[in-house]
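Reopening this one. Same input as before:
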Amino acid sequence: MKKRECLALGRLSLLVVALLLVAATSFAAKVATVEIPVNTEMYATAPAPLAPAQCAQCHNAQFGNLKEKGGKHRFACQDCHKSFHAYNPKKANYDELMPKCASCHTDIHGPANKDCSSCHTNPHTPRVVATTPRLTNSCATCHAEEKQEIVKFPSKHGSFSCDKCHHTKHGYKPSCAECHKPHFQGQEYSTCLKCHPVHRPKQVTYQSTEPAATCGSCHTQIFNKWKATPSRHAKVNCATCHKDKHGYIPQCTECHKAPHPKNILDRFPKCLTCHLDVHDLPAMKK
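Same output, byte for byte:
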């Protein structure tokens, strides 16, 4: 009996092993749902790197930014991006993968301004720089000459922070019309800077051809008197006498060298003793 039992048990064990092998084979066959032949030809050579136009097929926004406002950053994507599609949320390796400004740029704004992305928020539009507080507090780092002018020549412009005028973005140049009215109706705002340097606006200089109406907007009483005078001075533009610099008071002898005999000039050395008002000279009696 024992011999038969051992034989039966052995046969049963073999049957179980056979069933397990069949089950394992069946399970293995179900892992692959389709038959895909190996393409050794595809992997025989290394592929060429993607061209920027190919990157743009997916990253069209970044490509468009570089195309329109990329400045000197318009070169092959691989020159900055050494790894592609390697970000792993579990590793949180975004900063590790992203290009570093220092790889190409030195401290062009000084050692105190190394946090590039606080101003250059988009590397694909590097010259589009928002006027943030970080930027406003650093203007003098690059624009030292303008800062010196503001301090040396006090005016109301010096009481404002830079972003009051240069708002929106770095490089924005406002029109004077945003704050100021023209000297006279119809005056072009493009003429403002011919007289008023923007960072020292009270240091007024002008050409002799500057219209008298410009002067008349502030010097109204004198301007009206000058317009109505019957003397020849009414035909002389203000800037011809008050030349070059605002506030300049000319001497009569600059135009009238010796209008009277010497004995009269010696007796009356000051012309306005007789001629009273330079803007409205007394009419000569005939």
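So the earlier flakiness isn't reproducible anymore. For the record, The longest helix spans residues 2-31.
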